[in-house]
Amino acid sequence: MDAQLIARWQFGITTVYHFLFVPITIALSMLVAVLQTIWYKTSNDRYLKLTKFFGHLFLINFALGVVTGIVQEFQFGMNWSEYSRFVGDIFGAPLALEALLAFFMESTFIGLWIFGWDKLPKLAHLACMYLTAIGTMISAVFILAANSWMQNPVGATYNPATRRAELTDFGALFTNPVFKATIFHQLSASYMVAGALVASISFWHLSKVARGRRTAQLSDAVEVEEARTWRWATKFGAWVLIIAGVGIVVSGDYQGKVMTDAQPMKMAAAEGAYEQTSDFSILTIGTLDGSEEVFAIKIPGMLGFLGNGKWGSTIQGIDDLKNVDMNQYTYRRKDGTQTELQSSYQEVLRSHVAKDGIKLEPNIPVSYWTFRIMITLGMIAILAGLVMLVWLAKDRNPVHRRWLSFVLVLIPLLPLFANSFGWIFTEMGRQPWIVAGVLPTLPAVSPGVSAGTVLFSTILYTLLYGVLAVVEVGLFWKAIKEGLPDVAKADLDQDEDEPLSYAY
User: Fold this and answer.
1) How far apart are CA 223 and CA 208, in angstroms?
2) Torsion angle in degrees (nearest 10) through CA of 249, 250, 254, 255
3) Taking a C-beta distance cutoff of 8 angstroms, is the pair 65, 14 a contact?
4) Distance (Å, rounded) from C-alpha 227 to C-alpha 397?
5) Burial of 390 (0-12, 13-18, 19+ CB in 10 A)
6) 75, 243, 247, 300: which has the fewest C-beta neighbours closer than 10 Å?
7) pLDDT at position 198, please?
C-alpha cells in the first residue's frame, strides 16, 4: 500500500472513532439542560436526579470526545500537507473559529456547571449548561461548514501566482446549499442517538425496578417513585428519538436533492446506477467488480422524486458521468454549471487527471451499501422508539430479561452507527476528490511522508483508541449501573477558601 491509501485509512479510522462521541455530545448536552430546566421550574427532585445521572454520562462522553478530536487536526499537517497548503486560507477559517469560539465556550461553561452545584445561583448554573449545549452546536456549524465546502467549494477562487485557493466570500460557507442540508440532517441524527440512549437506559432501569408489575401494583414508596422517574425518562427519550427521526426523513429528502445538484456522481453511486434511470433500488446485487447488475428490487420512478423532486424524472448514470475525454475534462454539477473555484482551476485539474490516471467514480459497492445501511439502521431505531412507547401504555412495565438487556444495548447503537455509515458514504462517495471538482485526493497527500511512517502512526492510533474504548465503556457501564444519584442538599457551611469540588 502507498502512503496515500494508508493516510486515508488512518483518517477514516480516527474520524469514525471520534464521531462515536460527537452526536451524543451535541444532543445530550441540550437534553440535560432541558431536564435541569424542568427541575428549576418544578423543584421536583425526580428531574434533578435525572439531570445529574445523564449529566454524568455526558461528561464521560465529552472528555473522550475532546481527547480523540485533537488528533484530527494534526493529521491535516502531518499526512495531508498539500491539501492544507492548497485550501488553508479557506478550510482553516472555520476550524480556527471552532476552536477559538465554540470549544472555549464549551470548556468554560462545562467547568462552571461541574463545579457550580450549590455555589452558583440556580438560574446561572442552568444557563451554564445551555451555553455548553449551544457551544457544541456552534462547533458543529463550523465543522460542517468546512466539510460542506469540500463537497461544494463555493465562495473561493484559484490564484495562479500562489497556486492556492483563496476565500472570496466567507458568508458563502454558510449559505452553501450543502451546508444548509447537512446541518439540520446532522443535528437530527444527533438527537436520535441521544434520545435512544436516554430511552434505552431508562427502560432497562425500569425493568429492574418494576419487574413487569404495573406501577399501581408497586407498594414500596421508593420503588413507586423510581419507577415513575424511569417511565417518564423512557417516554422523554423515545419521543426525542421519534421526533428527531421525522427531522431525519425531512432533511434527508432535501439533502438528496442538493446532493444530486452538486454531486451527481455521488447520487449515481448511491444507487449503483450505471445508466440513466428514475428507479430507486431497494436491493441490487451486482458482479464482484460492481460494474453489472445481476438481481434488483426497485421502486419505479421514486429515484426521480428523491433526486429531482419529480416522480419519474431521471438522474445521470455513472457511465454518462465518467466516459469523457480526459484532455478536455471539466467537473460540472447537474445543471452544467461550476463554482468559481472549479472554473478557475480546471486547466490545472486536467493535468492532475491526465497525469495520475484518476478514476472519476467512487467505490460503487461501498457507496451503495453504506447508504442503505444508514437508512435501515435509522428506520429500525425509530421503530424501537415507537415500540417502547406502546409497551408502556396502560401503565405496563417491562420484565427484566437477559435478551431485553441485549436489545436495549443495541438500540442506541442503531442511530449511532447510522451516523457513522452516513459519513462513510458522504466521504467515500465524494472520491476521487478531496475538494469536489477541484483537488483530487491523490495529489493532496504529504509528499515527504513515507508509507511506513503513516502505517506506524495508524497502528499506534488504533491501539490507543482501543484502550480508550475499554475505558469509555467501563466508565459508562459503571455510571449506568449506579442508577439515580442521591440529591441530598450539599453542606454549604464550608471554608470559603476551600477548593471547589466535583459535584458527583
Assistant:
1) 10
2) -40
3) no
4) 9
5) exposed
6) 300
7) 94
Question: How is 115-156 classified by DSSP, letter by letter?
Answer: H-TTTS-HHHHHHHHHHHHHHHHHHHHHHHHHHHHHHS--SE
d(CA 470, CA 475): 9
Are 169 and 149 a contacting pair, CB within 8 Å?
A: no
pLDDT of residue 287: 66
**What is the reported pLDDT for 490?**
44
Beta-carbon count within 10 A of 139 CB: 22
Name the 3-class secondary structure at 331.
coil
Find the helix or strand (DSSP H, E) in which 251 lies. Answer: helix 221-262
Name residues whose C-beta falls within 8 Å of residue 423's C-beta, 6 or more positions apart in sequence.
15, 16, 19
Q: What angle do CA 277, 282, 286 make, to 5 degrees?
A: 75
> CA angle 352-353-354, nearest 5°?
95
Task: Say if CB 411 and CB 196 are below 8 A apart.
Answer: yes
Per-run averaged pLDDT (10 residues), the chain, 504 residues: 81 84 90 92 90 90 80 77 84 81 84 87 91 90 89 87 86 89 92 93 86 75 81 92 93 87 84 78 70 73 78 79 61 75 79 67 85 91 92 83 86 92 89 84 80 84 86 88 75 50 50
- pLDDT of 38 reads 92
Q: Please, what is the end-to-end C-alpha distance for the chain in angstroms?
A: 49
- Cα–Cα distance, 382 to 385 (Å, whole number): 5
Q: 381 Cβ partners below 8 Å, 6+ apart?
A: 192, 196, 241, 245, 411, 414, 415, 418
pTM (two decimals): 0.86
Q: Hey, which residues does 315 pair with through a beta bridge?
A: 277
* 425 CB-contact burial (10 Å; exposed 0-12 / middle 13-18 / buried 19+): buried
Contact 383, 410 (CB under 8 A): no
Q: By 3-state DSSP, what share of the chain in percent is helix, strand and coil, each rounded to 5?
A: 70, 5, 25
Number of Cβ within 10 Å of residue 415's Cβ equals 32
Q: What is the pLDDT of residue 191?
A: 94
For residues 441 and 80, is the Cβ–Cβ distance under 8 A? no
Dist CA 304 CA 205 (whole Å):
46
